[in-house]
Amino acid sequence: MTSVSRWVLVFYCIYLLLPLYWLMTMALRNNSDITGKFEVIPSNPTLANFAEIFSNPVWYQAFGNSLSYVVLNTLISICVALPAAYVFSRYRFLGDRQLFFWLLTNRMAPPAVFLLPFFQLYSSIGLFDTPLAVALAHCLFTVPLSVWILEGFMSGVPSEVDEMAKIDGHSFPYFFFRIFIPINRGAIGVTLFFCFMFSWVELLLARTLTGSTAKPIVVVMTRTVSASGLDWGVLAAAGALTVVPGIIVVWFVRKHLVKGFALGRV
Amino acid sequence: MAINKPYNNRAWLGVLPVLLIVAFSAVIPLMTVVNYSVQDILDFNSRFYVGLDWYRETLQDPRFIEAFGRQVLFSLSVLAIEIPLGILVARGLPKNGAWTSVLLILLAVPLLIPWNVVGTIWQIYARSDIGLLGVGLNELGLAFNYTSNPTHAWLTLIAMDVWHWTSLVALLSFAGLTSVPPAYYQAAELDGASKWQVFRYVEMPRLSGVLVIAVLLRLMDSFMIYTEPFVLTGGGPGNATTFLSQYLATMAVGQFDLGPAAAFSVIYFLFILLFCWIFYNSVMLDDNEARHHD
Amino acid sequence: MANIILDELGFAYPGALEPTLLPLSVEIKDGEAFALLGASGAGKTTLLNLLSGLLVPTTGRILFNGVDVSSQSGSERNLAQVFQFPVLYESLTIADNLAFPLRARKAVNGFSAVDIASRVAKIAGELEIENLLKRKPKTLSLFQKQLVAIGRALMRPDVSVVLLDEPLTAVEPRTKWQLRQSLKRLQEELGVTMIYVTHDQTEALTFADRVAVMADGKILQTASPQEVYEQPAHEFVGFFIGSPGMNFVAIDSAIPAPMYAASGVDQFAQRIGFRPEWARLEHPPMTHPLSAVHWLGRVTHCQILGTQDGVPVGITTLASEVGELKVRGAINATVGEEIMVVVDRCVSFCAEHYVATHYAQSSTSQLTNPVGNE
Lengths: 266, 294, 374
Description:
The structure holds three protein chains of three kinds. Chain A is built from 13 helices and no strands. Chain A is an all-alpha fold. Chain A has two domains: 1-46; 56-262, Orthogonal Bundle (MetI-like fold), CATH 1.10.3720. Chain A is globular and about 75 Å long. In chain B, strands 1-2 form a two-stranded antiparallel sheet. Chain B is globular and about 75 Å long.
């Protein structure tokens, strides 16, 4: 890398960090402080905003709701994608290329297009306002993505592994669950990352498909925005808390991250 | 790694779960949309088949055309910044070492923040009354206010998108760059190549495959953008920052005009499909070549 | 073209407990085909990296034509390298790939476009790849790509030395010999100093004028392939060269010590080594008196490699009173049979170092040591 690139990196990191820093300072000041006085470094830091979030059920239930559909979505996506990816990587079959392409198109679908039909569909089967509805709706994007990433990794595992297991006398379920899946741990980790990345961050569908029971955090925050009594402090604290799960997930899959991007299959 | 894949139609069993879920999530809703797009729906019981009327009306709707124009401008602007910036950032990253993990995590963070929080972060950051950037710019004498000034709103939106998504390009490029075996750099050095020649002949060929993907992804995703501008500017001031998704959302949900909304959706989707097709072909072509030459 | 001298060259990675290379000295003559042979971990890659400027020596110096280049970079030393896999510029045509080393140094060397074009044509002609010039690397086979890589290394007429790092590794087995031949022919025709690093003895012994056998960070012997084969300076060389390598037997069960003192050899030998092809199998009773070097053994395995005059020929493994022995030649015994191993030639070692060569004399069958080594 040249020195130009190094400087660009440095400035870009600062560019990234400044708004995050600002978020943190806002989270540590209470609202009257914020609207009253402008300070770059808070003189009266307080944890009151965080306390509000952890004690007010509106907030912490919302976090719980979000987490529940993200976890559900990730589970469903990975479970459903694993056999499909295996099959795509090992066999050719009638219509396989077309199917793969069609899956890809779903990843690229604009959520706005599905607002209306989803709303009607999920209402009609009684899943409206549940985390499951959001989890399933997100499957539209996360399942094709998962199949794609997993297939990419699995194609790199030689089919000799399958044959050896067969020769050793193992049944297919044994091979698949005790041998093949552990080999693909890294791939599953990366898939988890990307499923999380899509489901946790999405707003439009999460908002459309939930009412008051399963209200996710993204909705509570936007409601807070459009309300007139705007509490910047609490909003910032909630925002800061939504960044945390992301950092945790990245930390765990950091070793596989570059390889996942290397497949270029975001 | 060229696996000779045997032909086996029983493989469909493995794909069945995926098919079911995606059919449920995609096919049924899509069929509904297409269905609505060719009907005039006054209420549940009175519907009239109107053929391609809604499509014609939408494509001639001045507000649609404006939204489309804004969308194209926005997408091209962010692309023009994010691609070169992402490459430079990737080149600046140390290939391995203590800093590498830390920097990669830092880069990944903006990608994992809920999109509305991205909007909120930038709202807090850019407001001229409480924001670090807003107040800072005003202190420098610039009379910055993105809520009332369309140009400022645009600039802030672009800055926000760059903050949000450049990391994607950077991470993809980094993956491409680290795939270059050191022997290539060594050979270029022995040849007496200049730094520019190293970039052009050793790094760019590896990057080009990745970049096609990055460009198409960013183009498609920026074309679908909804949440962040919605939170930051709400589409304003006025209509200044109302892009396609938002226009569609207001039509579909707010106004209950199902027919035109559905037609709009189909047009939108077809456009995306076009990109998809290009994307698929370039990725699969690259893949097939790679698999033949290992 | 350069004459290269390594003067007490040693290397240790910072913080490593043991050095990777112990101080060694060797001279490689201008225009010589030189091979560095050793197993993985022997230190040959480190030595290669020191030669190419990738690593800086911890002790000692490297001299090119008498000039100390130890602190110079690879491009300053004006050398070229061929890697284990073909390293080409994927976006350029083969012709541009070949021209690159000259074009990059145009400002320095003043090559004109015409000079460059004619040099490209010449090298392409030598390698017989003229028909590939307009194509791009990704359309070529691995074999062709490696040929181009070799061509690139030979482009500069004044290149000091060409380093080859196991260049046949990636090439398909069927075409390895073809590449070996091309390489040898080019080296002879162009008279370029080449240093060939490998773990494959066939490659080293067929390519080189001289071979340096390495183990554990030391060069054990630098000599012609013939000499390395017949007079290994170290037990390891005897063991490593040949397939299979030498058999080793402790001395007190072979040649009686007084015989040594009588033939004027100062050192006492401790072990003898003999190549499987230097021994033969004979059924007892022996035609020669028992003073010949021989042992009784039971055949445990026969590996047939072919036939000669109708007799199967190959490698026979035997279990004997002195351990496992391997004999190469006519197989005239079956598994389980007891047979004599008779040694016609052997070399002796003291503290793993070469002492002398011994031949069986046809009339008396006693092993004697002719004055001087042969």
